[in-house]
Design a protein that fits this description.
With 305 residues, this protein is α+β, with helices and mostly antiparallel strands. The protein folds into two domains: 104 residues, Uridine Diphospho-n-acetylenolpyruvylglucosamine Reductase, domain 3 (2-Layer Sandwich); 141 residues. The protein is built from ten helices and eleven strands. The strands form two sheets. It has a six-stranded antiparallel sheet, sandwiched between helices. A five-stranded antiparallel sheet has the order 1-2-5-3-4, with helices on one face. β3 and β4 form a beta hairpin. The longest helix is centred in the last third of the chain and has 14 residues. 39% of the residues are buried.
Length: 305
């Protein structure tokens, strides 16, 4: 699918484009620059494809403002399990379904104008409870476009000190840092978290989603077990990371998330490893969609359900 990477159409007036599913997000936004951009930006923006973002319904560092991939899709072109190729506006039959209901070949994407000015505040916390209080206070700030965390464990591994770190981006000048180069450097640090942790042996990344009220409990559990965490805490999605040999701890984490009434996956998908933890409502929905689009069950067989 990576060879299907063409931009078919860019409509600047109506702010949309049509692309093949294999196009890499950064390549697309470089084509759209400087007038428009696709605003869902995962930290893997240099390598992730639109098709991958669609199949997992990815979020990103500015998810507080821009939401998830589903919020920016106008139409899809899809092959179903019978070999039928068609266009559809029933996007949620395929977005976030991990290729189990159809193979997405093209997408018509809604676009927006790039932010002209942003600012950033960069907080350090000794106590996790103070970070959570700050997070709660930010909920009513309409200027906030993204809130990211690097917890103390991750910060120590990255040699960035022994504090919990919170990055808050604003679409105005209310942040403490207004210099664009300095802001870019800080985001470079945030984007590089996975690479640095992976180089230290933390190869396995997870993506639970929890309500704010349950997040403190979850982060405390991670801290107790020396699990580094970073991610889009502003929308409740975080990324705990694990080393080889910690599979038992990962399963323990899944049970903790269920206990806290969270979601096992917020943006990476269930795949095979998390299959037994799929919510029954999601399982039933995919089974119904399979009957409609893939009656012989040949698409991504064994994934999710």
């Amino acid at each position: 699918m990576s060879r299907m990477n063409r931009v078919m159409e860019i409509n600047k007036k109506e702010k949309y484009c049509t692309v093949e599913s294999g196009i890499v997000l950064d390549d697309l936004n470089n084509r759209l620059c400087p007038d428009l951009f696709f605003p869902v930006i995962p930290s893997s923006h240099a390598v992730c494809t639109i098709g991958g973002m669609l199949s997992t319904n990815a979020a990103g560092t500015r998810a507080v403002k821009y939401g998830k991939t589903e919020d920016w899709i106008l139409e899809l072109e899809v092959f179903d399990g019978t070999g039928k190729l068609f266009k559809t506006k029933n996007i949620m039959d395929f977005v976030g379904k991990e290729g189990t209901t159809g193979i997405i070949t093209k997408a018509k994407l809604r676009l927006t104008e790039p932010l002209k000015k942003t600012s950033l505040s960069y907080y350090k916390f000794i106590n996790l409870s103070d970070l959570m209080e700050k997070l709660d206070n930010l909920k009513n700030d309409k200027g906030v476009i993204g809130v990211e965390i690097i917890d103390r464990t991750a910060s120590e591994i990255m040699e960035q000190g022994n504090n919990d770190l919170l990055f808050v981006e604003f679409e105005n000048d209310s942040g403490d840092i207004n210099d664009s180069k300095q802001i870019a450097e800080i985001w470079k640090l945030r984007d590089g978290v996975y690479t640095i942790l992976a180089s230290k042996g933390y190869m396995f990344i997870e993506d639970p989603k929890l309500e704010l009220g349950a997040m403190f409990n979850f982060l405390q559990w991670c801290k107790k077990n020396s699990i580094p965490v970073f991610g889009h805490i502003g929308v409740g999605i975080v990324h705990p990371m694990f080393k080889k040999g910690q599979e038992r701890l990962i399963r323990e984490m899944y049970k903790k998330i269920v206990e806290l009434k969270g979601e096992i996956t917020g943006e990476h998908g269930y795949g095979i490893v998390k299959r037994e933890f799929v919510d029954e409502g999601i399982r039933d929905k995919i089974k119904e969609l399979k009957k409609k689009y893939d009656p012989t069950n040949i698409l991504n067989k064994g994934k999710v359900i």
